[in-house]
Amino acid sequence: MDTETDKPKRRKRERRTSPSRVTMAEVAREAGVSAQTVSRAINYPEQVGEAVRTQVQEAIRRLNYVPNFAASQMATNRSGIIAVILPSISASIFADTVQGLSTTLLPAGYQILLGHTFYDPEQEEALVRSFLGRGPEGMVVMGTTHTAAADALLKQAGLPIVETWEWTEEPIDLLVGYSNEDAAIEMVEHLFAKGYRRLVFSGVVESGDARAKARLRGFRIAAQRLGLDADRVLLLHGRNVSMKVGAASIAEIRTRFPDADAVFYSSDVFAAGAVQECLRSGIRVPEDIAIAGFGGFEIAEILIPSLTTIVVPSVRIGQQAADLLLAKLKKQPIGEPRVNVGYKLVCGQST
């Protein structure tokens, strides 16, 4: 029979302990202020003087303090989160709008929760539902066209909603945008004034991209007004917004519309690819064919020849949207809930 001494001794497990989390009280002692002041400096920085705010921020850095925002949200009923829904994270113009939002919201103590829809209305609806469940204090949506369910969710959310990048007479709440249709009309009128008569519109016009639809609608309206053929359209269904697609479209356009003297693309990305393909193929721009785009991408300026385009103030859209959100969150009066930022037609060498 085994005795106690015969049994192998079991090694006692040592429990791993992690360093204790720095508390707000410790930050307060380090900064020489009260815990309430630390809380205000984190959650309501605008309510704390600059000198005290700097003291608290330096103490937070020295101690590597990480605020427990989940606990703070339960205590204050504030998440400090602004949800932002955009069509694509790869388009620089939408990234510029997020930059405009960030530069205004971050100093005011708000963080951005970002989601993208891939131009899919159902995905937008899913994001709206998911984000609202996370308790944001406001939401920015790029677009004014939503599914019926998403529209209802946004209207009953009970928080500031800013729609952007489009124009409507009946926004859900706040609006910062411009008319894509009017901008397209102006571009067609510009091309007509330059002497072009055999215009073609080309671009991706998917079901969830109301902006591209509005640009196509503007093209057709202007063409009809000017007595031009409004059906000279090459839609790039199911293709990505890329320079490669724009380059390939030139051959299709010259096959379907061999007499085309100008092409208006729904995006500068397509237009830039088309210009490059023309140069590669020995097609002179604008002598053989003029090319115009939309968006005011940086590449429009550095192309040779430079691109005629519609410039949209994408950073300003973000800044104005953030200003409206902050005003409403602070319960400040809002003079104009709809802000039309406009656009600018820039005539480059390509037309």
TrEMBL record:
The keyword Transcription regulation applies. Keywords: DNA-binding, Transcription, Transcription regulation. Pfam families: LacI (PF00356), Peripla_BP_3 (PF13377). Residues 1-23 are annotated as: Disordered. CDD domains: HTH_LacI, PBP1_GntR. GO terms for molecular function: DNA-binding transcription factor activity; transcription cis-regulatory region binding. Gene3D superfamilies: 3.40.50.2300, lambda repressor-like DNA-binding domains. Residues 22-76 form the HTH lacI-type domain. This is LacI family transcriptional regulator. It comes from Rhizobium meliloti.
